[in-house]
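Could you show me just one protein sequence together with its fold in token form as a worked example?
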Amino acid sequence: MAMKLKLQELTDDKARILFEGEGNTYINALAVELLNDPKVDVAQHRQVFQFSDPELVVTTIDGRPPLLAVTDAAKRLSGYAGELLRQMEALDTA
């Protein structure tokens, strides 16, 4: 099932993205990964109510486009997951 995103706010250095129908796990991992980018100032998961959709707030510095920072962080997470799958499959065949 595809993830449904809704862009709440976008400026040159800030993005607020709503993750409709998603839980907190992926958004938390994405926020942590975003903070590995030296040009990301803030990466924060917000959830107004316990059963509301989570929101990711990202602010950047030095001209880094916030949506590009999110895209790059998501690609890195995907790469980590792919590597984990490869290692698990290698264990299964050993």
Observations:
- The chain has one domain: 4-93.
- The longest strand covers residues 4-10.
- The chain is about 40% helix and 30% strand.
